[in-house]
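Sequence, structure tokens quoted for completeness.
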Amino acid sequence: DFLKIAEACGYKSCLKAVTLNDLEKCWPDFLKAEGPSLLEVVVNTNVEKDLPRPKEKPFQAKEQFMDFLKS
């Protein structure tokens, strides 16, 4: 439980958003919080089987992005 761990570590604000509505409600409080804060955002990890995946390795993607920024 990330929130309990954060609280035990002294975080001043520990929030959790499961839905978009939750996120919209807690976002302003998260931004106003003073001191260490944690906002846990639960996301859907279901992935379609035929979802295309990158063919490049992460370092190759980084190099391509850096080259793009230089141009």
